């Protein structure tokens, strides 16, 4: 092997590498053009063609496909359409798995037990889940609640169980007729070979499907994706929309729907509702004429439409109702009227509806979280009317499949009543009380601008980067709230003699645990063993029809129990009202008082005053809880703890001044000089710098840089940050932080700021240039030096890449064979040592 490669070899290697790069570039360009251009553009043009409503659009569709007008907008809209069709396809596949593994409803698949050789029925549970019904025959049905809201009374559930049993008995005759179809379906499931599907899944990878492996097989996948998009647009969008459109036009509701600004969505939902009604009617007719396959197909289609509508109602409509009700009940708090909300809806209907839906979703989420916290405090069985979302047997999709529509509608109405009543109690009524007692406190100031010298952007960044992380990550808010709930429960229990009902007794808990074990053993002995292939189906039926609250514990029932429960509810409402009054007034009052020292008489957005007051309240509560925890340890220990914490606070303040004060300020100022000032300020004007805004932006940039550093490769800065994070505040090492982190970072930032300034203000005037040139150099030296540094980094990277290419060309040209042999130390056996590596060279 020569020490240096000939020029022709280097040139040939470069040409080969460039050719390979060009080939890959053409292939990946074709892949990007197919998946990011052809597929979304085709989906968008077909979607527009179908919903134009004219025959001429169908005739001009091939020409519209080749049109170059609005390419970017159509591609973006097509990506949304493709995403919707892909989600619909995945949802259909997932729903099919839920029906196959969880079992179809009783009215759809109610097969009679097969006959044995003697002509008698086998003692097996049918596919409709009758085995689960027999197990829970003597138990009241436990209706699962959606949205974590009120369910039914267990005493009133016995009648429902009897009605369900009567309906099942009426469907037994129809189940005998479907036995043959059920057996054929089971036979098809038995003939299904999972190994072939696994092998196909192993062969089809994401690289092969998208064309990233270098082959052209992805063109076939592009064709099938385009065909699937067209089919889904036609079936799931075009047909329901036109069914709803023709129905609304026939009923004369077209003008009302157009006035809602959501004509397409409402018309499509109406079409789906009419389609569901049509499917259930056709299913009934197919049952009467004994068309078994058509009956099952229509039933499955009805289940798909039913589950889709229920998902829209639960995830879309219900949070939207909650959001609008919250807004209506809080109008006086912001000095707004319904006319203002109507004008905002007319100007931006989509944004308004999304914001209300988001607020409602947050409200529902926190309500469900509070219910989960209550379950950790209260006796199991107190919240029997609320569905336990942490229950491993809870499956909302199975409930949507099996439970009838009227039960979903009833629970939806109860959910709206409960959530709306809580909003009235904790928002509307406290606002009325505050306006009567403190007339000058409301309304809150929610203006979008401020006359104060402090920028709204700076305050927002401070809120998002400092206040909220401290409250959410280190606030112990959940533990405090749980302690308050427990204290309130104990107080209410002893005042009303409901301690056993709310919290239970230790002796009763032990006895109930033993009784629960015995009951589970008894139920396990009485349960019929399901047939092969029906285990999960029978389990879901048992879940839906099981009775009594899970983990129920007995309690002592005092005298006048209904009256005590009523007084408990009144006491709870009063407590929630007082808590809401405190939360609406105390943080804002404290924040206004503290911000007045900073901004004077200028009005600040109440979001910042509330956040500041909440932060101060959190610090106060945290200090009080720490002192209460130290009190039993004695005065000497308290002084020792205070000394330790004082030293730790001093170290933390020094580190905070360096890392949260100096570094963000220098970083924000450097960003202002390099990026913002050259882009926003002309050469004939003088830029003005605001240290407060530069510091606030620097905090954001510092967090972004730290996150990128922690996600990147291992180097000294990542090692130091990980070590500081691992030590935490309690084990803070001031010397290590200053020497390893603060000093190097501050030195680099100071050099980046000072060196260009010294060159522009000290070196350039000595060269005798004009004043205009000095101004140009002074204003453009920072971005120029940034370009130089970036160029040097690119050149260094290209030099390393050329060295790697040089070694690769040399190895391909002169290295013929190479074998890697494992190295082992010689131990005892000399004959077991491997031979040395061999290589042949020219």
From TrEMBL:
It is a multi-pass membrane protein. Its EC number is 2.3.2.27. The chain crosses the membrane at residues 71-95, 222-244, 264-288, 300-326, 354-374, 412-434, 454-472, 565-587, 607-631, 652-675, 695-717, 737-760, 780-799. Keywords: Membrane, Transferase, Transmembrane, Transmembrane helix, Ubl conjugation pathway. GO terms for cellular component: endoplasmic reticulum membrane. It is found in: Membrane. One of its GO terms (molecular function) is ubiquitin protein ligase activity. Residues 117-188 are annotated as: Disordered. It catalyses: S-ubiquitinyl-[E2 ubiquitin-conjugating enzyme]-L-cysteine + [acceptor protein]-L-lysine = [E2 ubiquitin-conjugating enzyme]-L-cysteine + N(6)-ubiquitinyl-[acceptor protein]-L-lysine. Residues 637-810 form the E3 ubiquitin-protein ligase MARCHF6-like C-terminal domain. Pathway: Protein modification; protein ubiquitination. One of its GO terms (biological process) is ERAD pathway. It is an enzyme of class 2 (transferase). This is RING-type E3 ubiquitin transferase. It comes from Saimiri boliviensis boliviensis (Bolivian squirrel monkey). The gene is MARCHF6.
């Amino acid at each position: 092997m020569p020490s240096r490669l000939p020029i022709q070899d280097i040139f040939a290697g470069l040409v080969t590498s460039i050719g390979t790069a060009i080939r890959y570039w053409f292939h990946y360009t074709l892949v990007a053009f197919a998946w990011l251009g052809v597929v979304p553009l085709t989906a968008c043009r077909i979607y527009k063609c179908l919903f134009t409503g004219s025959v001429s659009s169908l005739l001009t569709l091939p020409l519209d496909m080749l049109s170059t007008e609005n390419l970017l907008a159509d591609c973006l809209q097509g990506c949304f359409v493709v995403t919707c069709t892909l989600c619909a396809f995945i949802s259909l596949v997932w729903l099919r798995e839920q029906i196959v593994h969880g079992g179809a409803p009783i009215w759809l698949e109610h097969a009679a037990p097969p006959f044995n050789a003697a002509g008698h029925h086998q003692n097996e549970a049918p596919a409709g889940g009758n085995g689960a019904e027999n197990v829970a025959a003597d138990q009241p049905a436990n209706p699962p609640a959606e949205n974590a809201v009120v369910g039914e009374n267990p005493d009133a559930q016995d009648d429902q169980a009897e009605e369900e049993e009567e309906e099942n008995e009426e469907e037994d005759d129809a189940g005998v007729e479907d036995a043959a179809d059920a057996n054929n379906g089971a036979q098809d499931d038995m003939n299904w070979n999972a190994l072939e599907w696994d092998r196909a899944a192993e062969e089809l990878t994401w690289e092969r499907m998208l064309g990233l492996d270098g082959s052209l097989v992805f063109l076939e996948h592009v064709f099938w994706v385009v065909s699937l998009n067209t089919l889904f647009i036609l079936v799931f969008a075009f047909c329901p929309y036109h069914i709803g459109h023709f129905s609304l036009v026939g009923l004369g509701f077209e003008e009302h729907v157009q006035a809602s600004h959501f004509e397409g969505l409402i018309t499509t939902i109406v079409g789906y509702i009419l389609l569901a009604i049509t499917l259930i009617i056709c299913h009934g007719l197919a049952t009467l004429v004994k068309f078994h396959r058509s009956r099952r197909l229509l039933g499955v289609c009805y289940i798909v439409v039913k589950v889709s509508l229920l998902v829209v109602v639960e995830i879309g409509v219900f949070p939207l109702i909650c959001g609008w009700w919250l807004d209506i009940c809080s109008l006086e708090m912001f000095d707004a009227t319904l006319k203002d909300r109507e004008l905002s809806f007319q100007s931006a209907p989509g944004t308004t509806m999304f914001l209300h839906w988001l607020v409602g979703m947050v409200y529902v989420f926190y309500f469900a979280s509070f219910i989960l916290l209550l379950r950790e405090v209260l006796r199991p069985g107190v919240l029997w009317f609320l569905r336990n979302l942490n229950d491993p047997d809870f499956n909302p999709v199975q409930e949507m499949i099996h439970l009838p529509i009227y039960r979903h509608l009833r629970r939806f109405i109860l959910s709206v009543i409960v959530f709306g009543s809580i909003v009235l109690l904790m928002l509307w009524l406290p606002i009325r009380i505050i306006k009567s007692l403190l007339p000058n406190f409301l309304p809150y100031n929610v203006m979008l601008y401020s006359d104060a010298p402090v920028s709204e952007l700076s305050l927002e960044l401070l809120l998002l980067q400092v206040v909220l992380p401290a409250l959410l990550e280190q606030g112990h808010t959940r533990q405090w709230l749980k302690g308050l709930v427990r204290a309130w429960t104990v107080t209410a229990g002893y005042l009303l003699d409901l301690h056993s009902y709310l919290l239970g007794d230790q002796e009763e808990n032990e006895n109930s645990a033993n009784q629960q074990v015995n009951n589970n053993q008894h139920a396990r002995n009485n349960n019929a063993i399901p047939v092969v292939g029906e285990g999960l189906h029978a389990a879901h039926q048992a879940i839906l029809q099981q009775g009594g609250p899970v983990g129920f514990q007995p309690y002592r029932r005092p005298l006048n129990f209904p009256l005590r429960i009523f007084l408990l509810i009144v006491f709870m409402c009063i407590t929630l009202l007082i808590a809401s009054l405190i939360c609406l007034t105390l943080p804002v009052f404290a924040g206004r008082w503290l911000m007045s020292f900073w901004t004077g008489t200028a009005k600040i957005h109440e979001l910042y005053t509330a956040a500041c007051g909440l932060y101060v309240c959190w610090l106060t509560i945290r200090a009080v809880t720490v002192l209460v925890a130290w009190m039993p340890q004695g005065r000497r220990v308290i002084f020792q703890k205070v000394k330790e914490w004082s030293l730790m606070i001093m170290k933390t303040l020094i580190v905070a001044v360096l890392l949260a004060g100096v570094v963000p300020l220098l970083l924000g100022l450097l960003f202002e000089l390099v990026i913002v000032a050259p882009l926003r300020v002309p050469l004939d004007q003088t830029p003005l710098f605001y240290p407060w805004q530069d510091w606030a932006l620097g905090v954001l940039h510092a967090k972004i840089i730290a996150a990128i550093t922690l996600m990147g490769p291992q180097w000294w800065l990542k090692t130091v940050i990980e070590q500081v994070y691992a030590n935490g505040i309690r084990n803070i090492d001031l010397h290590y932080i200053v020497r390893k982190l603060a000093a190097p970072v501050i030195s680099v930032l100071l050099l980046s700021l000072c060196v260009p300034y010294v060159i522009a203000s000290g070196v350039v005037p000595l060269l005798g240039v004009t004043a205009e040139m000095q101004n140009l150099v002074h204003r453009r030296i920072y971005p120029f030096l940034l370009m130089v540094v970036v160029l040097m980094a690119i050149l260094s990277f290209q030099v390393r890449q050329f060295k790697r290419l040089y070694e690769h060309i040399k190895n391909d040209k002169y290295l013929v064979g190479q074998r890697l042999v494992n190295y082992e130390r010689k131990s005892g056996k000399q004959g077991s040592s491997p031979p040395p590596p061999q290589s042949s060279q020219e």
